[in-house]
Amino acid sequence: MAELIEESFGEPLVSIIIPAYNAAAFIGRTLESVQAQTHAMLEIIVIDDGSTDNTHDLVLKVAIVDARVRVISTANQGVAAARNKGVAEAAGGYIAFVDADDLWHPSKIQKQLALLRSLPDEWCGVYALYHFIDLEDRIIGHGGSRAPGGYIYARHMSYKFIGNGSTLLLRREAIDSVGGYDPGYAAAKIGGCEDLDYELRLFARYKVAAIAERLVGYRVYDGNMSSDHSRMARSMTEAVERGIRRGPALSDYAKVSARAFVLGYKMIQMLRSHRFGAAARCAMTLTVQAPLVLLYRLASYAKFVSLKRRNGKHASPPGPLFRNMAAEPVPPPREQFWDRRRMRLLGEEDARLEASLFSRHAGDL
């Protein structure tokens, strides 16, 4: 492991890990958005995960003119193994991950770092909200508007507030305490939700802070990992079931809510892949077990369909370029009537778990 560097020239070093597989189409733009961060004390580690295109050569050209950038080549093992390799090579006391096709607002790391450094050690990191972007970096929609902070384990299992792997900035100590990403997902051919698996391991032990600004451009297109809907549904199911088995003891209500979230997610994935029979079976089960989750998911799917139509060839042009958007606070969404009780009960569950967790920690001191 690289020697840890807490401070350099009065500023903390932040290590940026970019797993890249056949990312030649986007890696240049991703690197530009990382290099343009207003917090300049960075090391930028690209893990070339067995690419067969010219990803490696493109990164090398950038590294020639920016000493903060380096590329490490490995055999293709999947995104989890690539991130773990990056962490092992990182020297910073803070670590952030960004996928090789996503973009960052210039202020992302500076804002997250300022907030995280103001918080005690039981806070593992900071996440931010995001825009959806297309192949040309234009905004085509918005991710969720919820950005709760604190101890959010039960709520995150039912809502997945962190929508992609490019949002988190983490303390190195927190990463070391929970271990690496699980490469078993890729080995089992259910890669896609390694992020959620990792987040649940972190959030079982730590609090997390949030910045309610859209500081990430999350790219959506046919061919990226999240476009394999059946695999994503299996991956989500596995991540949540593992969280239920190994995490803090959840109430029956929280377990039912989390499993209903997965079933609703599966329903949407089946609709997106035009497997309408499977989607209908999910909907029928939700109608009996969790009708309010069904309403929530159908509302989310309606938003997705609207986004796709706006981005279609016969629709109005996509929105502005991501790089031209100002970072502005996002107001919290107005809770829908079908969701208010669920959020309240899961919030009470998190408060119970937090009191138990941190009272145990205090007793250990």
Q: What order do the helices and strands come in, and which of them pair?
A:
Blueprint: E1 7-8, E2 11-12, E3 14-20, H1 27-35, E4 42-49, H2 55-65, E5 69-74, H3 79-89, E6 94-97, E7 103-104, H4 108-117, E8 123-133, E9 139-142, H5 153-159, E10 169-171, H6 172-178, H7 184-187, H8 194-203, E11 207-219, H9 229-246, H10 252-272, H11 276-289, H12 291-310, H13 337-364
Parallel strand pairs: 3-4, 3-6, 4-5, 8-11
Antiparallel strand pairs: 1-2, 6-10, 7-11, 8-9, 8-10
Helix pairs in contact: 5-10, 8-9, 9-10, 10-11, 10-12, 11-12
* Unreliable runs: none
Radius of gyration over alpha carbons? 20 Å
Structural class: alpha/beta
Helix share, percent: 40-55%
Give a quick set of tags describing it.
17% strand, 9-stranded mixed β-sheet, 13 helices, two-stranded antiparallel ribbon, single chain, 365 residues, 11 strands, globular, alpha/beta
